[in-house]
Amino acid sequence: MNVHGQHYRTIWLKKDNPGVVQIIDQRYLPHKFVIEDLTSVDEVATAIFEMHVRGAGLIGATAGYGMYIAALHAPRHNADAFSAALEADAEKLKATRPTAINLEWAVQRQLAAIEAAGSDIEAKIEAALQTAQIIADEDAEFCRRIGEHGLSLIEEISRRKQGEPVNILTHCNAGWLAFVDYGTATAPVYAAHDRGINVHVWVDETRPRNQGARLTAWELGQHGVPHTVIADNVGGHLMQHQMVDLVITGSDRTTYTGDVANKIGTYLKALAAYDNDVPFYVALPSSTIDWQMQDGVKEIPIEQRDATEVKYIAGLSDGEHTSVLLTPADSPAANYAFDVTPARLVSGLITERGICRATAAGVLELFPEKKLD
Ligand code: MRU
């Protein structure tokens, strides 16, 4: 992704010091572009929990680099002490955010790779480094492929509309900021825009943290994609008036049966889309699929965050990043961060291997190797 004409990923190792992980600190976007250095597992855990980094794929990639940092700092005098330190750091990272399955997936993948590297500790550290890079590279490549597969949906609508703008509604930020590069829900949009297809994106603001208004709008602007920010409750009205051709969202965890956990409010958009015959697609890499869970509504853990995120709103005032109280000071607030959209409301899943129905049969057709699990 380009930022002011320069290509960035959302996470990388510092050029002259591979013991330092660098991230774009998303708390300051869109007003300030801040790069943060992470040098310890505690700093990595804080960055995930406090959402300096966020979004399923990027949380996974950050946890991958976090386990590399853990290996780098674990005691080297004996193998048991090394493993015990890694296990403790793995638990610390996994405890930061519960809904996006990519976090646990990346930590487990690292533990398996480090174990498989044998008994030499230097070899284990090297394995952790390689695995962190592979997780990040795969995330970017899978998102690129999601863009290519999702493009076909936009092309078809564009043909039908004879070149009139294709209006796509998205919720939250499932863009490149939520992954290592490209994003999921936005990847088909970027692919279409780059091929000269006339696209326009309705960007849900996404209260309470406003990932749509702050991050998706910024990303689309950087890429030159026409877009309009809307308040969260506008989508239903737009759909009733044929002003949305397609909804594409991301996912933080998708059961192999096709239920989709995504940012709070996604379910209501899916209901409105269903009622108005608007196709509702979810774009996700396979690292976001939970191969154990069948019933997303009952089983997917829903993160509840601090009430202050609902009670206060942050933005720029007189050039200063600031936060102001929105509610009566003593009103309690609840902050459910995700909801689950049942598979029956999902038109299809856009994955790195293609588009499938949101059913176990559809998913397993694309990922037949999972049938044995
Ligand atoms: O709480 P966040 O910002 O980490 O939420 C995750 C999301 O960005 C969205 O739910 C997104 O649509 C999922 S795709 C990473």
Tell me what the structure shows.
By secondary structure, this protein is α/β, with parallel strands linked by helices. The chain folds into two domains: 2-138, translation initiation factor eif-2b, domain 1 (Four Helix Bundle (Hemerythrin (Met), subunit A), Up-down Bundle); 150-370, 3-Layer(aba) Sandwich (Rossmann fold), CATH 3.40.50.10470. It is 40% helix and 20% strand. α4 packs antiparallel against α5. The model has no long low-confidence stretch (mean pLDDT 97). The structure holds 5-S-methyl-1-O-phosphono-5-thio-D-ribulose (MRU). 5-S-methyl-1-O-phosphono-5-thio-D-ribulose binds at residues 54-57, 172-174, 178, 184, 211, 249-252, 262-263, 337. Residues 54-57, 172-174, 178, 184, 211, 249-252, 262-263, 337 line the site of 5-S-methyl-1-O-phosphono-5-thio-D-ribulose.
What attributes does this structure have?
single chain, alpha/beta, Four Helix Bundle (Hemerythrin (Met), subunit A), Rossmann fold, 2 domains, 7-stranded mixed beta sheet, 18 strands, 20% strand
Topology, element by element:
Elements: E1 2-3, E2 6-7, E3 11-14, E4 17-24, E5 35-38, H1 41-49, H2 56-73, H3 79-94, H4 101-116, H5 121-160, E6 166-170, H6 187-194, E7 199-204, H7 211-223, E8 227-230, H8 235-240, E9 246-249, E10 253-255, E11 260-263, H9 266-275, E12 280-283, E13 289-290, H10 296-299, H11 308-311, E14 312-317, E15 320-325, E16 338-341, E17 348-351, E18 354-356, H12 360-366
Parallel strand pairs: 6-7, 6-9, 7-8, 9-12, 10-13, 12-17
Antiparallel strand pairs: 1-2, 3-4, 4-5, 10-11, 11-16, 14-15, 17-18
Helix pairs in contact: 1-2, 2-3, 2-4, 2-5, 3-4, 4-5, 5-6
The structure holds 5-S-methyl-1-O-phosphono-5-thio-D-ribulose (MRU).
